[in-house]
Design goal:
Number of strands: 5
Number of helices: 5
Helix content: 40-55%
Radius of gyration: 14 Å
Amino acid sequence: GSTSRVLIVDDDVSVTDTFSRMLRLEGYEVWAALSADEGLTLAQAHRPHAIILDAMLPHLSGYEVCRLLKFDQKYQHIPVILFTARTRQEDREMGQAVGADAYLTKPASGTDLLAAVDELLNHTPASPAGGPS
């Protein structure tokens, strides 16, 4: 099939570099953005198949970006993975409220990230070992 396009938005360039490289090695086409504005611009330009969003972006949080995308009919079908260093229940609830499709807790390994992207793009059921659903 055609190459899956992934957009990663994180204000830490070491994060976007590392994960972009890994995703490209897996055959994904990847765009990286260091800010919410840039992320939204790239989402409009490239219509990615999945978006990885850092929850703690400057200016606009990943939660707000997710909400903007999910309220827009052009983008609401795109799965969003929220990347958060915070694991409190209220953070998850906020993620659910804005329509995030999956969560990754920082620091996440590349393996975790690839599994999450893969699962959302292929809609394969998660393995039972993946913790509480």
